[in-house]
């Protein structure tokens, strides 16, 4: 008997950076493996969960927003009463039978009779709410309530699963770890010289950081360590690639270049042309940039915090994210070719995983629920 799954992507219009990239990659992997493991997946969007923002292109089914929500005068009373969110579960059932509904705290409703599944990225918003917007903290709290109420949980890393067990109070053996992957477009090769020239960069003459401009990425610390290294003679630039953020740090300083809204073809060249990637994050649940850098042949220095050592799997230099002297000393070594080449050799040993493989692990989990 076929197992029918609704895979909700309503979070995508809200998601900046890593979560959006992760969810898009996983949804694409599920679509490429359609029917395998006896599981049929419908990619669902609930536009009312992201009013004013476009629906994700991956969605094959969209829940119609009630007409009263589109009339300013009529919507005031139902909005104040929460009528539309309260009716989502019932209305989602009208899209068809779902044995499983895989969703998030952004869109917590699911059809009656469906098994609820939630993806855990990390627990940072619960442990460090001061790093995040009020909405992000609220969504994290909703997901925690869903999990405590019986929603099954999949985690993007073993570290995330262990933190959920401690912070949310869940049995760790009940959390299924599926991992993550770099998109297939990230491959080894030469950087595009025209792209580097347009950005004012030279091959092997810059250090790369990829991630939103948010507190958990530890960017002020990185800039401080980089500034120390420059005072000691480092000449390479520090390129910060992000997708916006909140509590944005000062990303200026001698040698610092900040880039936003970078498309994947440009990002691929940036990975290929960098001396190395730096990832000093304080609580990352996976770190897709590490996987993308490895896929492009770029070596890395990463933090010992969060899931970064797990993601690096021994294929990067790992440093304490509070040890400014150690990071500065490591960055100073990038002026020569020997150290970056050593890190590239480590990166080349990393065992690559594809989104297809991640999707198949998730399908196996779905199949286990359906029986």
**Tally of extended strands?**
13
Number of helices: 14
Report the sheet-strand fraction. Answer: 15-25%
The gyration radius over C-alpha positions equals 22 Å
Query: Poorly predicted ranges (pLDDT <50, ≥5 residues)?
Result: none
Question: What structural class do you assign from the helix and strand content?
Answer: alpha/beta
**Element string (H = helix, E = strand):** EHEEHHEEHHEHEHEHEEHEHEHEHHH
Q: Give the count of structural domains.
A: 2
Distance between the termini: 9 Å
What would you say the CATH architecture of the largest domain is? Answer: 3-Layer(aba) Sandwich
What is the 3D shape? globular
> The CATH topology of the largest domain is what?
Rossmann fold
What key attributes describe this structure?
371 residues; alpha/beta; Rossmann fold; 7-stranded parallel beta sheet
In short:
By secondary structure, the chain is α/β, with parallel strands linked by helices. The protein contains 14 helices and 13 strands. The protein is 37% helix and 16% strand.
């Amino acid at each position: 008997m076929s197992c029918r799954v609704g895979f909700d992507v309503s979070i995508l219009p809200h998601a900046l950076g890593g979560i959006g990239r992760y969810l898009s990659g996983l949804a694409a992997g599920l679509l490429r493996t359609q029917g395998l493991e006896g599981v049929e997946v419908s990619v669902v969007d609930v536009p009312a969960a992201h009013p004013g923002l476009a629906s994700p292109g991956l969605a094959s089914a969209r829940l119609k927003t009630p007409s009263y929500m589109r009339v300013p005068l009529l919507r005031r009373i139902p909005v104040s009463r929460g009528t539309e969110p309260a009716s989502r579960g019932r209305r989602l059932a009208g899209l068809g039978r779902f044995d499983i509904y895989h969703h998030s705290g952004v869109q917590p409703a699911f059809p009656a009779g469906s098994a609820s599944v939630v993806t855990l990225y990390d627990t940072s918003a619960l442990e460090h709410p001061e790093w995040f917007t009020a909405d992000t903290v609220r969504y994290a709290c909703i997901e925690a309530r869903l999990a405590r109420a019986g929603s099954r949980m999949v985690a993007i890393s073993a570290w995330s699963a262990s933190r959920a067990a401690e912070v949310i109070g869940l049995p760790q053996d009940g959390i299924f770890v599926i991992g993550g992957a770099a998109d297939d477009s990230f491959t080894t090769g030469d950087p595009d010289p025209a792209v580097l020239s347009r950005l004012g960069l030279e091959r092997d003459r810059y250090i790369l950081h990829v991630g939103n401009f948010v507190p958990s990425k530890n960017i002020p610390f990185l800039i401080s360590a980089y500034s120390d290294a420059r005072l000691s003679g480092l000449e390479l630039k520090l390129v910060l690639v992000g997708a916006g953020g909140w509590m944005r740090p000062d990303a200026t300083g001698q040698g610092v270049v900040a880039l936003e809204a970078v498309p994947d073809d440009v990002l691929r060249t940036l990975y290929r042309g960098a001396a190395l990637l730096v990832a000093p994050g304080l609580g990352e649940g996976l770190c897709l940039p590490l996987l993308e850098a490895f896929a492009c042949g770029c070596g890395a220095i990463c933090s010992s915090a969060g899931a970064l050592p797990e993601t690096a799997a021994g294929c990067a230099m790992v440093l304490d994210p509070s040890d400014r002297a150690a990071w500065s000393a490591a960055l100073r070594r990038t002026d020569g070719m020997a150290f970056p080449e050593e890190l590239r050799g480590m990166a080349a040993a990393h065992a690559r995983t594809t989104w297809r493989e991640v999707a198949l692990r998730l399908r196996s989990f779905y199949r286990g629920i359906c029986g």
